[in-house]
Write a structure and sequence with these properties.
The complex is a heterodimer of chains A (about 400) and B (about 375). By secondary structure, chain A is of the alpha/beta class. Chain A has 8 helices and 32 strands. In chain A, strand 9 and strand 10 form a beta hairpin. Chain B has 10 helices and 28 strands. In chain B, helix 4 packs across helix 7. Chain B is an alpha/beta fold. Classes of the chains: A alpha/beta (about 400), B alpha/beta (about 375).
Chain lengths: ~400, ~375
């Protein structure tokens, strides 16, 4: 069935800089903001933008992600024409390979895209937290008559060397692209969100595949090649909240941002809902001796202690006399009475025994302060401490970041 | 295929529910911070492996239709069977103008549906029962006891509007049936019965031919000697939501952890429609004590001993004590509420004070602005 526009969501990355949190799952499946997973953001953006066909390219540890996406029903992506499709690498009659790069992943699924014969393809990443109307970006793409439109946002000049930087002309058409430049000529950073005219992209993907030296990557290969070939490439300026949550610090930051709508990340805005697959559990219970302030709480939780400046996923318990501050607790975390958790990210199902002290404040940590991170399923026996800045694996052993 | 089919009676409206019940059937009354009463019966059935459930509707069922949708939230959106909504249709040419006068009349109205039931046994439940019944265990007992009809009873004679009470004799057999007694005695019936499809059809046809309309009167009471009516006694939490006072008292019981553990036991989850709201946020000025919160609430004020449904806002300086606040209601700055049941989309303006009493909770009608 012909579609005007479909989306391809790159969700195969390991997210190695999330370390133990992505030990068993791909980065897009990592919990975020209490009730969400990171992938809920691009998927919900698609639905809210009127895109009803989404290919999700998976590769690294896809089990969690596959079962989370399921039929796509929570995002309204279970329609009879289109809907969400999981696209893992596959074997053909001439063999097959893993996805070698972002462009190769799309190349290997040319057949899938052709099935819908779209005019336009939106390429998305599964590791960004933001709310964006892709239909607005598509309108910009059409108005500019571009072969490719890249979403950009202004970043502080000091941070520009961390991004792919676009130089634009008076009409916001891209004149130059530099991947992580030491001396940036502009502060417009690529957000890794692209709209392509499919006919053009299709040819560039085939040519790129035939180029031996290519890394088959959008940022490193496809975009520079198109620019060099003189294709018309538009920038689409985005001004809202956007964060790459590829590191432990940025994941923690984005969770804290979610508590303060002033940050620009307002998840309570009902005009642009973020959908999620949710669980059956009773409402959250805040007990008689609980003190919960500036925090997010979710269903199935039973909170009896102190919770401050923290984001709690569903089914979290915090025992009496326990304290959780500036932390992000994934689903099913249990904090026994009297334990203290500060500046930490606790993976799914972690159990913190009574009297444990996990993490520390920057003020009380003279040197080497950092977030304390516990792998999913990590259990700390009573009285065990986990210092600020360390990371523990599932068996409670310290691993290096 | 499991041998159980479910029928839920969701047509009853209870006058004593005041404004809570005048706009919806008692089966669709919000309860427990994120549920509707009917979620419990549906979940009980689904958790016992019943894949086919018919819901008998009458009167103000728009709210219930909206809630149930295709039944997917209970995994009842199926190719074969699944959820089947049974509104009134041309029964004896009356076009469903009159409310059903008894369960037998309601069953006779959906006789063609009963005939098509694929299972051997039927569980009949009231849509306003809030309990987490182990129906597979009830079913097993039904088969073992060789009963004609198994009657699920609570282990008390708590007063409920239009209640049914059973006197239980030797071996658990029902010896007497009391309908709406002035003073309850015996065990409180939970409106939940297991009966074979074959016997149910015989009873419905026999009663209909004699112009008998009442399941309780014309079947249970009249035939307690010829049929073997066996009791199944449920000792857990079981609320029947039939009056404002009962609604309020039963809601407040949920603040007791033991009762929540019983009603929301992990082996038999209670499923409900999802609201797609964000996490609940408690602000820097928020003080929440001994209370339940649905998703997406935003709390800057004080909330004590209360139950808040999804999307409720309590602004700074506001105080909510001993209240039940339905979805999307707003309590503005410095307002004070105690012993209030506020229906959906109620707005309490700045500085207003409203107080009921534990023995006389005040109901605020849907959409009202105080």
């Amino acid at each position: 069935m012909k579609k005007e526009c479909i989306a391809m969501l790159l969700a195969g990355g390991q997210g190695s800089r999330l370390y133990v949190l992505t030990g068993d799952m791909a980065k897009p499946a990592v919990p975020f903001g209490g009730k969400y997973r990171i992938i809920d953001f691009p998927l919900s953006n698609c639905t809210n933008s009127g895109i009803d066909t989404v290919g999700v390219l998976t590769q690294y540890r896809p089990l969690e992600l596959n079962s989370y996406i399921g039929s796509g029903q929570p995002w309204d992506l279970d329609g009879s024409s289109g809907g969400v499709h999981i696209l893992p690498p596959y074997q053909g009659s001439k063999g097959g390979t893993w996805y070698k790069g972002t462009a190769n992943a799309i190349y290997q699924n040319i057949g899938f895209i052709d099935m819908y014969d779209p005019e336009y393809v939106v390429i998305l990443s599964g590791d960004h937290i933001y709310k964006m109307d892709y239909s607005d970006m598509l309108a910009r793409h059409k108005a500019a008559g571009a072969a490719c439109t890249i979403s950009v946002m202004e970043v502080p000049w000091s941070e520009a060397p961390r991004f792919g930087i676009m130089s634009v002309d008076a009409n916001d058409m891209i004149t130059e692209f530099a991947e992580k430049p030491k001396e940036p000529k502009s502060n417009l950073a690529s957000m890794g969100i692209y709209v392509f005219s499919w006919k053009a992209l299709r040819q560039y993907l085939i040519d790129d595949e035939n180029t031996e030296s290519s890394e088959n990557d959008f940022g490193k290969n496809i975009i520079p090649t198109m620019l060099a070939a003189g294709e018309s490439m538009a920038a689409y300026r985005f001004a809202g909240y956007w964060k790459d949550v590829g590191t432990l610090e940025s994941l923690w930051d984005a969770n804290m941002d979610m508590l303060a709508p002033e940050s620009g990340l307002d998840l309570r805005d009902r005009s642009w809902p973020i959908y999620a697959r949710s669980i059956s559990a009773p409402p959250a219970f805040l007990g008689g001796n609980s003190t919960v302030t500036h925090s997010a709480v979710n269903r199935g939780s039973i909170l009896q202690g102190v919770v401050e400046n923290s984001v709690l996923s569903p089914n979290v318990t915090v025992g009496e006399g326990a304290a959780v501050r500036y932390s992000v607790l994934f689903p099913g975390v249990q904090i026994a009475p009297g334990a203290v958790v500060e500046y930490a990210i606790l993976g799914e199902g972690c159990k913190i025994g009574g009297g444990c002290h996990v993490g520390g404040t920057p003020e009380n940590t003279p040197e080497g302060w950092g977030l304390t991170v516990l792998a999913p399923g990590c259990e700390l026996p009573e009285g065990r401490d986990a210092k600020a800045g360390i990371m523990l694996n599932r068996n409670g052993e310290e691993v290096s970041k | 295929m499991n041998g159980l089919q479910g029928i839920i009676f969701a047509y009853e409206r209870r006058g004593n529910l005041q404004e809570l019940g005048s706009i919806r059937s008692s089966a669709s009354i919000p309860f427990g911070g994120r549920f509707r009463a009917v979620d419990f019966a549906l979940s009980n059935l689904v958790n016992a492996g019943a894949n086919d459930v018919g819901i008998i509707l009458h009167g103000h069922f728009q709210s219930l239709l909206d809630h149930l949708g295709t039944g997917k939230d209970w995994d009842l959106s199926r190719k074969r069977g699944g959820l089947r909504l049974l509104p009134p249709f041309n029964y004896k040419g009356e076009w469903g103008a009159m409310p059903y006068r008894g369960h037998i009349e309601a069953l006779a109205a959906v006789r063609t549906y009963l005939e098509d039931i694929r299972q051997d046994h039927v569980v009949m439940m009231d849509g306003d029962l809030v309990a987490n019944l182990p129906l597979s265990d009830v079913y097993e007992n039904h088969l073992k006891s060789g009963a004609d009809i198994t009657v699920v009873c609570a282990n008390d004679s708590f007063m409920t509007e239009d209640g049914t009470y059973f006197q239980v004799g030797e071996g658990g057999r029902i010896s007497e049936v009391f309908i709406s007694p002035h003073t309850p005695r015996g065990l409180r019936g939970l409106g939940t019965y297991i009966v074979s499809k074959k016997l149910l059809l015989e009873l419905v046809d026999d009663c209909a031919s004699k112009d008998q309309l009442s399941w309780r009167g014309d079947v249970l009471q009249a035939r307690k000697s010829e049929l073997k009516l066996q009791s199944y006694i449920w000792k857990g939490y079981a609320a029947q939501i039939r009056s404002v006072q009962e609604y309020y008292d039963r809601s407040m019981q949920l603040l007791d952890p033991a009762i929540r553990a019983d009603l929301f036991c992990a082996q038999r989850p209670v499923r409900a429609k999802n609201a797609d709201l964000s996490s609940t946020y408690v602000g820097t000025g928020g003080k929440c004590v001994n209370s339940l919160f649905g998703d997406g609430c935003s709390i800057e004020g004080v909330v004590e001993n209360s139950i808040l449904f999804p999307g409720v806002t309590v602004e700074a300086g506001a105080v909510v004590r001993n209240c039940v606040i339905f979805k999307d209601s707003v309590v503005r700055r410095d307002a004070q509420l105690s012993y209030i049941i506020a229906d959906k989309d109620v707005e309490i303006l700045q500085g207003r004070t409203l107080m009921g009493h534990a023995t006389y909770p005040i109901v605020l009608a849907k959409g009202s602005k105080i």
